[in-house]
């Protein structure tokens, strides 16, 4: 056991993307004694992490050369592709025994293509490992991970997962983890919209909406989104930001695209996407606004 602990601590972890959920992931890795080097396209976001004990790389390529596992936590498919194969030049700096763990939520078809391209370019392995649980779970090391790729690479990623996750499920080959995350986001995004509708309905009918999350706790209507975002919606609290409207819109739009390609019928999800588009178009909500602002859309149209 002692040797295993030493081996975990000896693994050098690189982390690219220190935004809303990436930063608390890095903080958690540092709290668990991991050796972490960070890089971000906006360098100022790394300053608190460097103060907490992380090293700062001069570039993503420099980070790749000095680490064994490279974690990505980026906004979308285009950002991942650019860091790995474009301006970030990550692929050119990785070794044949390097492992890329992509914690981002991106397109499964693009994931399969990038995993194959990376292996051809330098022999490095790819593991798609999108997460669920949001900022609170990232801070507590209680994330849920959907993994796609080689089972052996999940074992290799133990220094990352043992610090960040309460559960890792191997969903299948490359892209399967991203598909599972799409299923997760389909439920979450639709749930958030109907929570907003429900609370606005309660307000209109004279029910104290602020009491509903606690009243519904433990019943069939309960969920983490209800308990986390419900009180914020009912009390008009949108800071600190826990999840951007634009992120949920991006994820649910991907579900609609993938379902269309697969011939799957998803009328409720398609209707929810239209509501997210309407929310983003409002100045008092917007793509960067916290998901707790979704109630403003249904209040305004009730």
How are the secondary structure elements laid out?
Blueprint: H1 2-10, E1 12-16, H2 22-31, E2 35-39, H3 47-51, E3 55-56, H4 60-65, E4 69-72, H5 77-85, H6 90-93, E5 99-102, H7 108-122, E6 125-128, E7 131-132, H8 134-140, E8 143-148, H9 151-156, H10 158-164, E9 165-172, H11 176-204, H12 212-216, H13 224-234, H14 245-262, H15 267-280, H16 294-301
Parallel strand pairs: 1-2, 1-4, 2-3, 4-5, 5-6, 8-9
Antiparallel strand pairs: 7-8
Helix pairs in contact: 2-8, 5-7, 11-13, 11-14, 11-15, 11-16, 14-15
For this structure, the CATH topology of the largest domain is Rossmann fold
Please state the CA-atom Rg, rounded to the nearest Å.
Answer: 20 Å
In total, how many beta strands? 9
CATH class of the largest domain: Alpha Beta
Report the structural category: alpha/beta
The CATH architecture of the largest domain comes to 3-Layer(aba) Sandwich
- Lateral strand order in the biggest sheet: 3-2-1-4-5-6
Please, what is the average pLDDT?
Answer: 95
The end-to-end span amounts to: 60 Å
Low-confidence runs of at least 5 consecutive residues: none
Shape: globular
The description of the largest β-sheet is: 6 strands, parallel
- CATH superfamily (homologous) name of the largest domain: NAD(P)-binding Rossmann-like Domain
Determine the fraction of residues in helical runs and give it as a percent range: 40-55%
Order of helices and strands: HEHEHEHEHHEHEEHEHHEHHHHHH
- Beta percentage is 5-15%
Number of spatially distinct domains: 2
Number of helices: 16
């Amino acid at each position: 056991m002692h040797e295993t602990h030493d081996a975990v601590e000896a693994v050098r972890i690189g982390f690219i993307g220190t935004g809303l959920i990436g930063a608390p992931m890095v903080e958690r890795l540092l709290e668990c004694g991991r050796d972490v080097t960070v890089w971000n396209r906006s360098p100022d976001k790394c300053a608190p992490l460097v103060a907490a004990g992380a090293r700062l790389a001069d570039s993503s390529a420099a980070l790749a050369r000095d680490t064994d596992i490279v974690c990505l936590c980026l906004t979308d498919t285009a950002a991942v592709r650019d860091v790995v194969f474009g301006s970030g030049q990550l692929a050119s700096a990785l070794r044949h025994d390097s492992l890329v763990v992509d914690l981002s939520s991106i397109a499964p078809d693009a994931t399969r293509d990038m995993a194959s391209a990376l292996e051809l370019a330098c022999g490095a392995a790819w593991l798609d490992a999108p997460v669920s649980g949001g900022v609170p779970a990232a801070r507590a090391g209680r994330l849920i991970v959907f993994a796609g790729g080689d089972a052996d690479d999940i074992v290799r990623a133990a220094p990352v997962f043992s610090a960040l996750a309460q559960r890792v499920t191997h969903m299948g080959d490359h892209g399967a983890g991203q598909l599972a995350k799409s299923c997760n986001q389909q439920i979450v995004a639709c749930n958030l919209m109907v929570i907003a509708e429900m609370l606005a309905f309660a307000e209109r009918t004279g029910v104290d909406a602020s009491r509903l999350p606690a009243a519904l706790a433990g019943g069939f209507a309960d969920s983490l989104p209800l308990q986390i975002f419900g009180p914020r919606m009912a009390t008009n609290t949108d800071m600190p930001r826990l999840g951007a409207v634009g992120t949920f819109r991006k994820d649910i739009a991907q579900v609609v695209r993938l379902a269309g390609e697969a011939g799957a019928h998803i009328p409720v999800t398609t209707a929810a996407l239209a509501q997210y588009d309407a929310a983003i178009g409002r100045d008092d909500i917007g793509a960067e606004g916290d998901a707790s602002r979704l109630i403003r859309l249904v209040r305004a149209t009730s």
